C-alpha cells in the first residue's frame, strides 16, 4: 500500500498516512513556464496498491492534477489505483435541470475512468446517485460518523435539527433520530445560481436551539439566510454542520455577521489562512479516510464503519 498526496490537501494526506503508521510517498509536481503541470512518482509503484489523496475543489487544476497522477500511475504499472477524493468537485451539476446544460458530475466520472482509475473513495457526494456514474467501485463515506459523535457529546439542550433545504432532509432526519431531537425543514428556492431564498419553515423552532445540517457551504447564502429566518421565528442558539467548506464569495463575512454561533466543517477542503474565524470549528475526517483505506487494502467491510450513523 502506498499513499500519495496531490497539492490540494497535503495536510489531510499526511494525517491519513499517520493514521496508517506510514508516510506520504515521494512524488514531484512541477509547472512548465506556461503553467502546465508535470508530475512524477519518485519511487517504484509497480504492482502496488496506491491511494492518491486529492480533493477537487476549485481551481479545476486540482482535477487535472489528479488525472495526471492516475495516468502516471497506470503507465508505471501500479496494481490498483484508488482516487481518494475527500471533496468531489463539480458534483452539484448532477442532472439536466434545464435545456442545453452539462452534467459535470458525469463528465468528471468519465474523465477519471478514462485516465485509468480503479476505484473511488469519497465522502458525502452532493447526490449519492453520482456513484452510479462510475462502472467501478465507489466507497462513499458519511461525515455524520464524525459530526454525530461531536454533537452527542456537546449535549445541546432543547435541540431541533433543521434541514436547510429539501435535498438535505434525509441527512438531517438521520441526525434527528440519532440525537433524539425533532426535525424541521426550510423551504428554500434558488431563483438563480448562488442565490438562495427562504420561503418557509416547516416545523417548530421557537425557543429551541438549532442544528442545521448540509453537505456543503459555498457562498453561505443558504445557511445564513436560513439562520436569519430561524432567528426571526424565535429560535435559540444556531449551530451548523457542513461536510465541505467551499467558502467562496464572501461566505466568511456572511457567517461572521449571521446568528450562527458555530459552524462545524470537516477538513475535506483546507481552510486558507484568510479563512480563519472563531465561529468555524474544523473536525478532521483523516481517521475515517485512513481506516477506510486500511479496510480497502485488506478487503474488509467499510459499511460496518457506519452501523450507528447513516
Ligand atoms: C445545495 O443543494 C447544497 O446542499 C448547499 O445547500 C448549497 O450548495 C450551498 O450553497 P451556498 O452556500 O452558496 O448557498
Brief rundown of the structure:
The protein has 310 residues and is α/β, with parallel strands linked by helices. It has helices spanning 10-19, 61-75, 104-115, 144-154, 169-179, 221-232, 251-257, 286-297, and strands at residues 2-5, 27-31, 37-41, 49-53, 80-85, 119-123, 138-141, 159-163, 183-192, 195-202, 209-217, 238-245, 260-266, 280-283.
Keywords:
about 300 residues; alpha/beta; Rossmann fold; 2 domains; seven-stranded mixed β-sheet; five-stranded parallel β-sheet; 8 helices; 14 strands; about 30% helix; globular; binds ribose-5-phosphate
Could you explain how this protein is built, in words?
The longest helix is centred in the first third of the chain and has 15 residues, at 61-75. This protein folds into 2 domains: 2-141 and 287-306, 3-Layer(aba) Sandwich (Rossmann fold); 144-283, 3-Layer(aba) Sandwich (Rossmann fold), CATH 3.40.50.2020. It has helices at residues 10-19, 61-75, 104-115, 144-154, 169-179, 221-232, 251-257, 286-297; strands at residues 2-5, 27-31, 37-41, 49-53, 80-85, 119-123, 138-141, 159-163, 183-192, 195-202, 209-217, 238-245, 260-266, 280-283. The model has no long low-confidence stretch (mean pLDDT 95). The chain has 310 residues and is of the alpha/beta class. α7 links the parallel β12 (238-245) and β13. The strands form 3 sheets. A 7-stranded mixed sheet has the order 10-9-8-11-12-13-14, with helices on both faces. Strands 1-4-5-6-7 form a 5-stranded parallel sheet, sandwiched between helices. It is 29% helix and 27% strand. Ribose-5-phosphate (R5P) binds at residues 165, 167-168, 194, 196, 214-222.
